[in-house]
Design brief:
Blueprint (H helix, E strand, L loop, with lengths): L3 E6 L6 H16 L6 E6 L5 H9 L3 E5 L16 H6 L4 E4 L2 H6 L4 H13 L3 E6 L3 H5 L3 H12 L10 E4 L13 H18 L2 H6 L2 E4 L7 H5 L6 E4 L6 H13 L1
Parallel strand pairs: 1-2, 1-8, 2-3, 3-4, 4-5, 5-6, 6-7, 7-8
Helix pairs in contact: 1-2, 1-11, 7-8
The protein binds 2-phosphoglycolic acid.
2-phosphoglycolic acid binds next to β8.
């Protein structure tokens, strides 16, 4: 039985005290909740990883990084390594987000290298894939998804250690959510690909999250789709009440 994962991606938002206030409030909001079937993850900017991780230690949520470098260590000014995340016991890391693909020209090859480095350190990647609006209009969504899966997961062993996030680029930060049917169609395609390329078990056990303008109003109809196992949430994860209410919805399902 797959857990529902509700993950917040803060991107480049929140000042120090805002981050602190959010995390303490989230911690309070989750305290009385039975989270057996739901995993809550917050991905803050890397400068707040230590703060976040300290608060998470006494709370019911987990922390993920938003990015990591594909090199082990050395002269890469401004970057952070997988070993650094590991040394702080950070359990998750987003890779392949469309904003990184777009603004930092991250290729499937680099994303694949990051993913393998994370696995060497037993950190679970939240591996993002998704088509642009032009690609959807050209009717090549499925080809794009399959090629991102083939590229990002090339020569990767999966055993309960990858989370995939399907995030249609046209739905990110735009207020335009994929319909539950549009999202489910691609999630089912991803699950099928996992079964063909790995096994029925891997396909059945790998969480596939949806991302793209998920909010308290649409979260339920998305989460009840058979192949949607949670959400990677940007805008609505900056407001602790909205984020907590999405967790509450997931708990009730
Ligand atoms: P959004 O972002 O919820 O603001 O659309 C999602 C994401 O980019 O992960």
């Amino acid at each position: 039985m797959r857990k529902i994962i509700i993950a917040g991606n803060w991107k480049m938002n929140m000042l120090f005290t805002e981050a602190e206030d959010f995390l303490f409030e989230l911690s309070d909001n989750l305290e009385e909740k039975n989270l057996n079937s739901v995993e809550v993850v917050i991905c803050p900017p890397s400068v707040y990883l230590e703060l976040s991780s300290d608060i998470a230690d006494d709370s019911k949520f987990f922390i993920g990084a938003q990015n990591v470098n594909d090199n082990s260590n050395g002269a890469y000014t401004g970057e952070i390594s997988v070993a650094m995340l590991d040394s702080m016991d950070i359990p998750y890391c987003i890779i392949g987000h469309s904003e990184r693909r777009k603004y930092y020209a991250e290729s499937d090859e680099v994303i694949n290298a990051k993913l393998k480095k994370l696995h060497e350190n037993e950190i679970v990647p939240i591996f993002c894939i998704g088509e642009t609006l032009t690609q959807r209009e050209q009717n090549i969504t499925k080809d794009i998804i399959l090629s991102q899966l083939n590229g990002g997961l090339k020569d990767v062993e999966i055993e309960d250690n990858v989370i995939i996030a399907y995030e249609p680029v046209w739905a990110i930060g735009t207020g335009k959510t994929a319909t539950p049917a549009q999202a489910q169609e691609i999630h089912a395609l991803i699950r099928e690909w996992l079964e063909e390329n790995y096994s029925k078990d891997v396909s059945g056990n790998t969480p596939i999250l949806y991302g793209g303008s998920m909010n308290p109003e649409n979260v339920k109809e998305l989460l009840i789709q058979p192949d949607i196992d949670g959400g990677l949430i940007g805008g609505a994860a900056l407001d602790v009440s909205k984020f907590s209410s999405m967790v509450a919805t997931a708990v009730e399902l």
